[in-house]
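User: Could you check the structure of this?
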Amino acid sequence: MISLIISHSADSGQRLDRFIRKYLPGAPLGGVYKMLRTGKIKVNGKKKDQMYMLELNDEVNFWLTDEEIEKLKWNQEDNRSKNDKEIPKNKLQKPLDILYEDEYLLVINKVSGINVHPGDHKTTEVSIIDQVQDYLKWKYDSLTFRPALVHRIDRDTSGCLLIAKDKWALEKLLSDLQSHKMEKIYHTIVVGIPSKKQDTIRAKLLRIENAKNEAKVRVDERGQSATTHFSFLQKVEFNHSFSLLECRIETGRTHQIRVHMAHIWHPVLGDRAYGDRRINSYALRELSISRQLLHARILSFFHPKTNQKISIEAPYPIDFARVLS
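Assistant: Sure, the predicted C-alpha cells are below.
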C-alpha cells in the first residue's frame, strides 16, 4: 500500500477522481472509478466516491503494488522526466535571471531563443518551464500541481515572464489577466520612423492553420479583434533609420505586436517571419541581430495574496542594448 498525505493547498479542494488522474495520468477514467468502487483507492482508510472533495491532512491510500503504480504513472514520468531530474548544466542556455520571487510567484527575465513550454516529445531541448521546475523542485511539495506559466511570450522574445507557484495564485492571476487587470508593456525596435509619435492599431488577426512557416498570423477581417497602442521613444540611426517604440496591448493574440507593426510598414527589426529581409540581412551582418528585437519590458499586476500592485522591469538584453548604443 502507498499512502499520500494531502499537505499542500494545491492538492486540497479538488475532486478525488481529478487528483487521482493527475497523480496517475496513465489510469483511464473508467479504471479510476473501478478502483474507487472496489476499494483499491481509499481516503483515510474508507471508500469514497469520485466526487469527494479532498481536504488538508487527508490520507489517500492506494492498495496497489509498486509495479501497478509505476505502470499507471508512465505518462507522468515521460512528460516530466526532465523536470524531476536535475537538468545537466551544459543543457541550460543560461541560468534563470530572477527579477522577483516570493512563496506564491516568480518573475524571470526570459532570454531569447528558448521556448517557454516543452516542445514535441521527441526533442531534448530544455524549456523555460523545465528550468523553473528544476529550480523549484526542492522548494515545492505538491503531489499534483507544478509551477505554471500565467502567460506566454514567443521563443525569440525576451523579458518579463510570470510563473505561479500555487494553484490558487495561478487561478487568481489568470482571472486578472483575462479581465485586463494585468498590464504588459513591450519595447521594440522597428524599421523606419512612424509618422505619429503615438497611435493605436486596431486590426483583426487571423491565425492560419497548418502554416508551413513561422508567419502563421495575418491581418484579416475574419480574425479576432486586436488592439495595440504604441509610443515613439527614441530614434536610432545607422545606415538606416530605426525607432524604439513602447507598445501596450489590450489583447494578447499570437504574434500581435509583430504583425501589427508589419501592417503599418514598420516591421520589428530582425523579425524573420514578418520583417524586411533586406534590412534584416544588414542587421545580422553589421549588428549581429539574429532575432526579432521585441522585449517584454514591464509587467504590472496585483499580488494574488496581498492585492498590492507590483511592477517589474526587465533590463534590455545585450543585442537590444547594442542597437540602442
